[in-house]
């Protein structure tokens, strides 16, 4: 009887181990899920969700157009719902591209997840639809804008004397620096924590690629308490 119970437990443990093959799913480009035929940026930040438990050694491989671009080894016994990030190091050409995520376990099993996405032709770096809400503002203001491509974003606010009173720096892919609509909250205080007086202000939003400014948008906002 004891032998049968022990054998059953061993078989159960083996079955769980076999089923614990890691799987890749839910790819995102610049923190945006791939939806229908939406284009992606030519230099995207790619994230992938990996699920799988009770696996002593896993490997995640990313291929773009059948060329392996990165390998990630997972030295942990539990990886459930964990995101892994890859920043493209060279720009993708215009057109369709094939992506393949492969996840292997210590038994050699390698399920793959394949899909295609495309980079829009003549991709332009544009900041558009910039608004300050509300305007005039009395307590805080939401600065909203749309980005056509991910990149490092800088927001500068100047007073009437062209003095910089507030600045925000956002890295590509984080909130405020993602493809699509973004918003950043300003509490109407200076970089020193002092309340800014009533009057007009100039907000300048610009995007940089390294040290080069590739896009810029300006808007006026007013403080009225």
Largest sheet: 4 strands, antiparallel
Percent helix range: under 10%
The number of helical elements comes to 1
Parts with pLDDT < 50 across at least 5 consecutive residues: 5-19, 75-80
Number of strands: 15
How many domain units? Answer: 2
Strand order of the largest sheet: 2-1-3-6
Report the mean per-residue pLDDT as an integer.
78
| Gross CATH architecture of the largest domain | Sandwich
Instruction: Report the β-strand fraction as a percent range.
Output: over 45%
Specify the structural class.
mainly beta
CA(first)-CA(last) distance: 82 Å
> In CATH, what is the class of the largest domain?
Mainly Beta
Report the principal-axis shape. Answer: elongated
How large is the radius of gyration? 24 Å
What fold name stands as the CATH topology of the largest domain? Answer: Immunoglobulin-like
Written description of the protein model:
- The chain is mainly beta and 225 residues long.
- The protein has two domains: 20-119, Immunoglobulin-like (Sandwich), CATH 2.60.40; 127-223, Immunoglobulin-like (Sandwich).
- It is 8% helix and 53% strand.
- The protein contains one helix and 15 strands, in the order αβββββββββββββββ.
- A hairpin with a 2-residue loop joins β14 and β15 (212-223).
- The radius of gyration is 24 Å and the shape is elongated.
- The chain starts with a helix and ends with a strand.
